[in-house]
Write a structure and sequence with these properties.
The protein is of the alpha+beta class. The protein has one domain: 4-Layer Sandwich (Deoxyribonuclease I, Chain A). It has 6 helices and 14 strands. It has a 6-stranded mixed β-sheet with strand order 3-4-2-1-14-13. A 6-stranded mixed β-sheet has the order 5-6-7-8-12-9. A two-stranded antiparallel sheet has the order 10-11. β7, α4 and β8 form a beta-alpha-beta unit.
Length: 255
Amino acid sequence: MQLKLLSWNVNGIRACHQKGFLQSIQNIGPDIFGLQEIKAMQDQIPAEIDNMPGYEKIYHPADRKGYSGTAIFSKLPILEYSVGINNPAHEGEGRVITARFENFYLVNVYTPNSKSDLARLDNRQEWDQAFFDYITELEKTLPVLVCGDLNVAHKEIDLANPATNHFSAGFTDEEREGFQKYMDHGFIDTFREFNQSPHRYSWWSYRTQSRARNVGWRIDYFLASQSLKANLVSAEIHDQIHGSDHCPVSLDIKF
């Protein structure tokens, strides 16, 4: 069985819906997809999306309306699911959904941003440790796939202007070290497993025509447990798809 998994920070599911969300999903045809920053309560999800045939749907909105939130849509049976990371200090913002399937856990995550003035960097470091603890605990039961906006460019190849961004949110030493912990544990950055090319990004600022000039960052990922390495088929960044300041990323995997 080969599956296509997709992840997309839609930056508002209602706004993205107006910009061709359904057509983009149909064109790619994922078996399972995770969304971040849905910015909607369940009763605010556009009916055409909520009623997409063939998909089981899980929504995890933030407590605050119009902010954050995640969702998982799956054609495969979801055997069980949970929200959050079992850590009261990091709940309330709708950032994580975990779905258990027969052969793996899928963890859909929208990682907190450290903010432009790095006001939230300390919280972000606490989050990175708590999330690492959470996914490595899951791994004791089943292999783990993590998808989502991790709000960090891991290496200099992962953003257009590394030299001027070492003290910018998403490229600080602290955030990159937090991501490196996943790698040191054995998690695979699936896109880099297949593609070492520069200039491949998944997010572009709305300012200064960044997307038209491809001045971007790669901050959206599929990470896979080391035990799934032989199962990986391909990984892609769908940078031709618009509708958000992020584009979708995908993973093909076989079981």
